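note to self — DONT lose this again. spent like an hour looking for the file last time. sequence + predicted structure for the chain T wanted, 309 res
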Amino acid sequence: MVRTRVVQTLFAYFQREDATPVMALKSLRKSYEDLYALYIHLFGFANELIRYSELQMEESRNRAKATHTAYTPNRKFINNRFAADLFNHHELRRWTEEYHLDWDAGMNAVANMYKILQSQPFFLAYMQAEESTYEDDRRVFRRIYQDLLPNNDSIHQALEDMEIALDRNHWSTDFEVVLSYVIKTMKLFKKEGDEPRLLPMFENEGELHFGLELMQKTIEHRSEYSRLIDKYLKNWEADRVAYMDRIIMLTALTEILCFPNIALEISLNEYIEIAKEYSSEKSHIFINGILDNILKEQNITGTTQINIE
């Protein structure tokens, strides 16, 4: 995600005439913070789902009381021990408070998910079981996050609404990647009362420094490397090349030429994957071809191992 954030930030920076390199670096730092804020915020969805379930149960109890109807609540989901561990997790709570995160703008998604949950076989089996282990409690949330959240339109809309409400960026586009980290973290909870360490924002401080330096050098060498790219466009008109493709090639060239300690195959594969994710269908093939021609003339080898499938 380090390179992806650099490309996204440069995409916005180069389109603003009033932007400065200092502003770009500040924006990049915030983008990393936004990414981690989403990671923290997604855990809060479990707490909101439990809270909404309790509100629905209270409404059912009141209706039963008003109509003199017998009502026996099933509190298994509300008493879910894994959800309680998430709620009581000190590090999660600290980050949630520091980032001022809440689900106020996303409650429609919570209500929608609760409604969907009522018809899910895995959830019905969980609620009907006489006894459940801590693993059962954790598994039901893993299924919610893994099977129900990714393709849920209301959660994507909620993320867009919360981006505005909470002054965050790219939450809807980064959702599935960050969700995979949330699910990975869930596996670290083994028994009731567990409070495992959360995944760090960066694996090491070097990643942050690399991202900032890559951004700075791409800005510094923009004119030089843009001319190099234009030289190899051949039959392509420079102004018809997709803007995102140009930014990806520019950043890739900067990394290859300014960071020779990084294996060429790693750099190229990273940017091919970014092109697949964020540009047009055939962009990764086009980008690979242009970069391949540039590197051959520069006598930089290693392009044969690129995966463009």
